């Protein structure tokens, strides 16, 4: 085991051409309401011939037929101690983790192909930060975006309805960004559990884990109902002008797994903030199954829905510049548009490289030291946005 300290370095490069799904041409007949009926007829023993455009995992043709009725859902899931274990993270195709504030991390779960198998409960849904919007913007111009509130400058009891200058810095005002993108409207793709999205898509449940949780940890959503609501609003597979959501989507490169006969690196560990050990992360490589098992604050990180430890085929440490707190409310700002260094763990090995994202809606790309784009092992992808300069032990 050795330690590596990497500093964030901004790089300049030309972008790669956008890839398209060959099958994204027109939406299928039917819609989200028929999903449950179709799902009940799926034979689990059918051959896995269909590649998920999000993470390359292979599924059956009927499962693809289900996801082709939808567009990707991106959901903010919290990681506070009192929110654990979460529901639904193990069904996500991609998961991003970053600090929300005070060293407490939060997740952005990308739910698309993995939700074809069943209706998934996702919880607890929590508020958004601007850098999560940057990542969500990679999954179409108007992805299904599920959250509960967010950093904002609104104050009902303040003069003019605006908070005092300095309370919330403009650069971290998530509501302002959502409004600018055209997401935050009454029937928009930004589905806020606190304002424009209600039952049965999202509900309050303080007893999800058995014991009563605090009110702020109680929002849970159900993917089938959320997808149905999205379709009603014009955010199904096609938009209101009959254009498929993924016509400009940049697909990552994928390869079949080739695990090392003897793993070179069997454990990855790091912290986000040194004074918040409950949010330290460890990934332990398991040769059987060629996967990384996640520990959250030193304990097995389980999905409450599956009652099993969360795992991933790929673990990416994306080093991001950290700034803050930038205002009186303690918000942090992380640079997710630009470039920096990265470590990519897969197959029991590691690749040192970099990440690049030219604009907010550009897909984050990962490259090796020769500037060749990384191909991900088919399956789950976890992206850990770690402050540049932090030590990674592996």
Automatic annotation (TrEMBL):
Residues annotated as domain DUF3048: 68-156, 276-383
Classification via Gene3D superfamilies: YerB-like
Any Pfam family the entry gives: DUF3048_C
Top-level taxonomic group: Bacteria
The name this protein goes by in its record: DUF3048 domain-containing protein
